[in-house]
Amino acid sequence: MIKLLFLLILSITNTAYAIPRGIENNNPGNIEYNKTNKWKGQTGHDGRFVKFDTEINGIRSLVILLQNKIEGKTASSLGRKLDNIQKLGFNYAPTHENDTNKYIDCIEHYSKVNKKDIITKDLLTQVVRGIIICENGYNPYKNLDKIVKRFIK
Fold first, then answer.
1. What is the three-class DSSP state of 97?
2. What residues contact residue 144 under an 8 Å CB cut-off, 6+ apart?
3. Collapsing DSSP states into helix, strand and coil, what is residue 44?
4. What global pTM score does this model have?
5. 43: Cβ–Cβ under 8 A, 6 or more apart, which residues?
6. What is the pLDDT of residues 75-127, one digit of tens each?
7. Which of 8, 51, 92, 141 is most open to solvent, judged by the fewest CB atoms within 10 Å of its CB?
């Protein structure tokens, strides 16, 4: 639906913009493909990132991934709780491929959550919004808060 609206706007304005990869893949958090992960709604990958059948399943997977990282339950977290934006940022956007401090500042800015504050369930929606904006340049989901809250455990 979001992609169709975006394409309609482009055709009306006669402007050529690329749809961000995360939006195109219904994976607004740009979750990397890993053959051991079987995300709900996963339809494949684009060589690096998972593709989902719907944006709902992409957002759902982002929420689950973040909750697992926050609780230290992912292989990449090595049992450490990545419970604030700063810790999460160094794991989610490692320095060997990103300007991690800039990424952390971006999430802090758009989520309006201090990078050193513990990410509680109440703050997770804001952090998800910040990640989506930083990954894609904007948040196209008008009901994002409602969608995220459905999947917070």
1. coil
2. 59, 125, 128, 129, 132
3. strand
4. 0.87
5. 51, 52, 53
6. 887 889 999 999 999 999 999 988 999 999 999 999 999 999 999 999 999 99
7. 8
